[in-house]
Give the backbone structure.
Amino acid sequence: MIKVYVMESCPDCVEVKQRYSNDPSFELVDIGKQARDLKEFLVLRDTHPAFEKVRERGNIGIPCFIKEDGTVIISLKKFDDSFEPVYAEGAACNLDGTGC
């Protein structure tokens, strides 16, 4: 099963939820709903080498896909290259409003 960290207020994560919520091979974990899930994700983000550039940029690192073999993929586009983000006006994760 692929574990996916998401957050309801992240535009890319909304797309992930739409694509994979009914697929039993995905476990979606919304880090905004339970403090325990947020802490679990933060430990991963703060210690795993795959997040080095994410941390340097001050980004969150979601959506984050953890494959069964432990591979970490940060970004829906990298996980599924058919994804083309379309953000509603004002929808952004970046502080400068440029998207996620």
